[in-house]
Amino acid sequence: MSNNMMTWLGSLKSNFSNTQQVTIVMGNEAADLDSMASAVTYAWYLNLSDTDGKYFPMINIPRADFKLRTEAVYLFQEAGINIDNLLFAEDVDLDKLKAGSNLKLILVDHNKLASSQTGLETVITGILDHHADEESYPPAAVTDIRPVGSAATIVAESFLKDQKDSIDSSLGTLLLGTILLDTVNLDPEAGRVTDDDSKAAKEIIDIAGLDSKKLFDKLQFEKFNVSSLGSYDLLRKDYKEWQLGDIKLGIGSVLLPVEDWAAKDSEIVSEFDRYLKERKLDVLLSMNAFTSPGFTRQLVIYVPDSNLREKTVSFMEGSDLGLEKLDINSSSDSCTFYNQKNLGISRKKLQPLLKDFFEG
């Protein structure tokens, strides 16, 4: 086997089959950077350490959703990884593999499966994680679960222990960038970093010759950089929905001033309409939050039904949100734009208010 991670990644798809015995290394269903980077790097480590095994990383989201993780898009590119080579949720039929007795599962960055995947619990053979241990796995599973700042730290320790020669610029960038982002650049005041994180990061920096400050600053910028996303993706990047009585409500959280958004997309109202219809919503809100220069909140209300719109807008304008209408040039009465003066009301706090209103 080649000891080059890029060569291995390039052959993943051609070597994978849903009808052969495999071990899938998988992060959690939120698929943040730590989950994705840890799955890829730990699967590579296992293939180096056990040349008889077939270990495949799986990114636990649809391929189309990867671009929403803007910090991951940047870091994988910086590490030289071609996303087309990776296996995503639609490429791996976990249920079919299990039904054929062909599946073993190693979890990284979580130790309890998502509700939609709980049927796979019996085939978990290993876990590498930094969350509280929920003990929802077979007793025979080999686990390393401890409260470090990043699951990538535990992966890095594996390489540093017995595969140090494999740590090149690509692998080092992927591991170090993930550790830095999870620990806020190893800052003790952020309350996330442990001695293990700092030790692993320092060794990788020394081996791969990386600039940690430059890497962290760029990652932090890209995490909040949504300039590459269109309206549809902005709405779904950080989105939640609820059934409140007869009303189906969706709320997107968007890191962009609505003035910039409307200027960027002249069809913004059409995109709201498309999203609302696709999700079969009655009410679609966008809560926009950004720092420019001070922290600012804004709100977009989209309700096509005129009677429901009137009631919803009246309630929200009369609430404690402190709404102040913005003059955004849109050709639809269905969409209203506001500054939100009450900075203390986030999505988490607004949803219960709307629940009481719609269900009351």
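[next item in queue]
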Amino acid sequence: MHELNRRSFLKAAGAASATTMLGARMHALTAMQTEPARPVAANDHIQIALIGAGGQGQGDTKIAVQVPGVKLVAVADCYNGRLDHSKEIWGDDIFTTRDYNEILARKDIDAVIIGTPDHWHKHASCDAMKAGKDVYCEKPMIHLYADGPEMIETAHATNRIIQIGSQRVSSLLYIKAKELLEAGAIGKLNMVTARWDRNSAMGAWSYTVPLDASPETCDWPRFLGSAPKIPFNAEHFFQWRKWKAYGSGVAGDLFVHLFSGTHFITGSHGPTRGMAAGGLRFWNDGRDVPDVMLGLFDYREGFNLSLRVNFVDGGEESEGLIFTGSEGTMEIGGGAVTVTRVPREQAPGYMIDSFTEAMQKQILADYDKKYPPHSGSESLGGVEKYEAPHGYSDSYDHFKNFFEAVRTRKPVVEDAVFGFRAAGAALLSNLSIERGQVVKWDPDAMKLV
């Protein structure tokens, strides 16, 4: 036993020394959002409109107009206060309306940003494409599975550009992670673990309701659209993510980001089956969607994806993904990609304590001949970290990709097919909870099985 312990210690010490010498190597990634020095030609400007000017829509637009050669000219929303505020932000010459069809009828608008509730995504996107506008549609692309094929077909039929707004797929961190995985940085991928935790009322969608909310200031019938007709409800109007009639719950709001990132980095079309569990654990405020959800999904590429969203988290609000491979892990979080390689021995090791002394000596002698001590067969471990520049915005790069496609008609990074595969996979979680069973999905045909 003395010889066995000594040898194990020497091997462990050698591996630890190698790791320590390698250290944590830091790499600063270069921002992708550096613009060319030349000014954008006057005839190359893109005029855009915003449809759905809530927090997400306004936030998107503030970033979009930072891209050179992009100008906002119109805004549509069902709440007067947001139309008024749009003029405060972008000027009194901005055209505002409750009816987005007035925007789509204008010939001077090239593209629209759709920041409506989920149940309007398909309607607004298809109407815009049929009116000759290119579309940036917030995630999730769909509210119902039937929305996906119609949006894809409309994009093809009208030859319009459509970009779905899961901006992580344009992130330089995710691009680096994809490069590292393809290069074998962590060996063969076998598991992806993803999380998104929140512990605040705003994070749990309990958004502030304005003091003047009423049927006079809010176009309630237009907001409802295809949703069930109920009397005016200010909470439903301004906190719509909390109800299935208008939103898709944590699956459509947050899981979809994690699916988008996983699919982009791995190149997968999606899972073949999935199951989820969850429920209302804390925010019992009338909402009908879970505030905690966990999901587990099988991928035919040979890895599993586990996801967690927790609105009752007592710790720090955070998001992240961990890719686990045969030779290490790769984590995305905190503005960086961190690869941790695990020292791996080529020798298999041994367990001989229960054998006779004679047998132990014989096995050790054979083992030493086949695997000489300190033969250099151990792979080195270490940590490499790739950090994004301070103030980096993946949303900016996502819009930059969109507007470049609008100008050149080249494909975007997240078209309707990619968007449907991500949202279709995410919404399997809702179906699994509703049905209480595993749900199967065909990621190529994009159909429930």
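[queue empty]
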